[in-house]
Fold this sequence. Notes:
The chain is α/β, with parallel strands linked by helices. It is built from ten helices and 14 strands.
Amino acid sequence: MKDNFSLDLYRVFAAVYENRSFSEAARQLFVTQSAVSQSIKQLEVMLGVQLFLRGKRVATPSVEAEQLYAMIAPAIGTICEAEERIERFKLLREGFLRVGAADTVARHFLLPYLKRWNELYPDVRLQVVNRTSTEAFSLLAAGKLDVAFVNSPVSDSKFSVKKCLDLHDVFIAGSAFSELRGCTVTRHELCSYPLIMLEKLSNTRRAIDEEFMRSGIVLNPEIDLGCHDLLVDFARINLGISCVTREFAAIDDELFELQLDTPLPARELDLCWIDAGCPSEAKKKFIDMF
């Protein structure tokens, strides 16, 4: 490849070749006819051949021009197609976004935002990946997610964080534990009852375990579950006292919330991502929704 290679020169050449006219090429490229003429002269000097026989109204390609166009036309077409596609990505008329969220977050928080996104940007494909916060962190770090909704705390500084919602962990029970309704229960007293909690792998469970450890209490629930909605269902049929996130739990008249003498500290639902270079327009727009 010549050191003074210029794609713009070949674009001008292709326009003149296809229109058989310097003036038509200038109009197509939104430049002056003089600029077109200068570009062709520069390309001819660079290649050492004459490309067009210049008539009053028609520019006739030389044999060398015919050969040159046959070789560069597919490349220019590919480049133009790539540029058009990038423009569609910028305008959110094409593209994709990979979003990580646990089932509970997707169902009780994210759905209206996904609906709004689809209304605003129907041509940008959303891939929603259901994962726990711990799994989402791993996928973000590996570049397999663009953004992820996770339960605090977020301890790794490589993640950018935007708070979306305050979360409150509470204990709920059904009719079998009605003697506790309206009473203040200590953390130690709570542990004497059958507890139902999320599995230990979840960020929520880990945060609650650590909070009780600060009071010198090791939680040993009778039932560990992987699904938040089941915590509510199990409490409703009196299998035990469930620890749920208030914002994600449908607590009806069959259930009541226990009043702890020391409520658990609030946590957050955070939107996380990694700032690596220039983010896509889709990623920026999605983050701005929250």
